[in-house]
Amino acid sequence: MQMHKLTLIAATLATLASCGPGADRDAGFEVDEGGFGNPTMINSQAMRGEGDYTMALARRFAQEVPSTINFAFNSATLTPEAQAILSQQAAWIRQFPEVRFRVYGHTDLVGSNASNKALGLRRARAAVNYLVTKGIGSARLEAVASFGETRPVIQTQSPELRNRRTVTEVSGFVKKGRDAVLNGKYAAVIMREYVESATRPHPGNSVISTQTTGGG
């Protein structure tokens, strides 16, 4: 009888414990920093089309890499500053062989619309050609759209450097034949980065030298 009471008490305590904080959460919630399930969620969305996860990578590209370069007046020649930014873009793009990109050319409002549209396209092509020299396959890059003078950053009729630009954006995922590569592509990107991050040494584990080299 005494043993039976002890069993009932233990069962009651276990039930109460299971109703405590976190009891209704998924297993592993303690290590979820808030974004743990996003790759799985977005990959599930990929089954419905490219839009959702293309937008996710587009936002990441815009956050991690300068997406805009600027040009001198009436020129499609890349400046050293523009080449440096494009080199950063190329380094980012090389991490994602599954992804396609599009470069849009823009001008300021000086000159005719027709001439500016052609100039914007030349600028987009100059950026694409430079990215190709950095090892990006031309099939993944497009300079197919030039907004010309129709989308200025600064609304002015005067020459304006900030309007003379190209903008690189994620445009989608590589296609094979007539079929879009949808299922698993976003997950493949996340998994590859996850594995690589696990092999990189943690800063806290590095050996700190006790020798001083001068300076203050």
What report would you give on this structure?
This protein is an alpha+beta fold and 216 residues long. It has one domain: OmpA-like domain (60s Ribosomal Protein L30, Chain: A, 2-Layer Sandwich), CATH 3.30.1330. The protein has six helices and six strands, in the order αααβαβαββββα. The chain has a four-stranded mixed beta sheet with strand order 1-4-2-3. Strands 5-6 form a two-stranded antiparallel ribbon. Helix 2 packs across helix 3 and helix 2 runs antiparallel to helix 6. It is elongated. It starts with a helix and ends in a 17-residue tail after the last helix.
Can you tell me the CATH superfamily?
A: OmpA-like domain
Name of the CATH first level: Alpha Beta
- Class based on secondary structure composition and strand pairing: alpha+beta
Strand content: 5-15%
Percentage of residues assigned to helices: 40-55%
Radius of gyration computed on alpha carbons: 26 Å
Strand order of the largest sheet: 1-4-2-3
Distance between the termini: 77 Å
Summarize the structure.
With about 220 residues, this protein is of the alpha+beta class.
Topology diagram in text:
Layout lengths: L1 H17 L19 H9 L4 H14 L3 E3 L9 H15 L4 E8 L6 H21 L7 E8 L16 E9 L1 E2 L2 E2 L4 H15 L17
Parallel strand pairs: 2-3
Antiparallel strand pairs: 1-4, 2-4, 5-6
Relevant terms:
216 residues, alpha+beta, 60s Ribosomal Protein L30, Chain: A, four-stranded mixed beta sheet, two-stranded antiparallel sheet, elongated
